[in-house]
TrEMBL record:
This is MORN repeat-containing protein 5. Gene3D superfamilies: Histone H3 K4-specific methyltransferase SET7/9 N-terminal domain (2.20.110.10). InterPro entries: MORN, Morn5. It comes from the Eukaryota. Its main location: other. Keywords: Cell projection, Cilium, Flagellum, Repeat. PANTHER family: MORN REPEAT-CONTAINING PROTEIN 5. SMART domains: MORN (SM00698). It is found in: Cell projection, Cilium, Flagellum.
C-alpha cells in the first residue's frame, strides 16, 4: 500500500481488507488508530494530527458521526457555549491554565515556549514571511 498511496497500515486484515483494529498512517503523517470494517473507519477511533491535536470519534462507514476535537495544548473544542478567545476573554488558553505573565512579559502566542521568529521575519500564524524591499 505504501508504495502506491504513500500511506501505511498495520493491523488486522480480513478477506484482504483492513478490518478489526489497526493503525492507518496518511502521507501527511496524520494517523488513525481504531476500529475498521471493510477497509473503512468504523467504530471507535482517533485521528492524531502532526501538530499534536487529536479527534476522537465514533465512525460509521468512513464518516465521523460523533466526535471531540482536542487542540495540541489540551483545549477541547465545544460546539456550544464556546468560551475560549471570545469577545469577553481574549486570553490564550495557556494563560487561562497557567495564569497571566507579569507586565512586559506577556505572551504573544499560545505556545509555551513561543517559537523563535527569525530576524527580519514576521509570524503569520502558519509560518513566517519576510519584509520585502520597498515595503514600509
Amino acid at each position: 500500500m505504501e508504495e502506491y498511496t504513500g500511506s501505511k497500515y498495520e493491523g488486522d486484515i480480513k478477506n484482504g481488507r483492513m478490518e478489526g483494529k489497526g493503525t492507518y498512517t496518511f502521507p501527511t503523517k496524520t494517523r488513525y488508530e481504531g476500529e475498521l470494517l471493510d477497509g473503512m473507519f468504523h467504530g471507535q477511533g482517533t485521528l492524531f494530527f502532526p501538530n499534536g491535536s487529536r479527534y476522537v470519534a465514533t465512525w460509521k462507514e468512513g464518516r465521523a458521526i460523533e466526535g471531540k476535537y482536542t487542540f495540541a495544548d489540551g483545549l477541547e473544542y465545544e460546539e456550544e457555549d464556546w468560551e475560549y478567545c471570545d469577545g469577553y476573554d481574549r486570553r490564550f488558553y495557556t494563560e487561562i491554565c497557567k495564569g497571566l505573565k507579569p507586565a512586559g512579559r506577556s505572551q504573544l502566542t499560545n505556545r509555551i515556549p513561543p517559537r523563535e521568529i527569525p530576524a527580519s521575519c514576521y509570524d503569520t500564524g502558519d509560518g513566517f514571511t519576510t519584509r520585502t524591499q520597498g515595503s514600509s
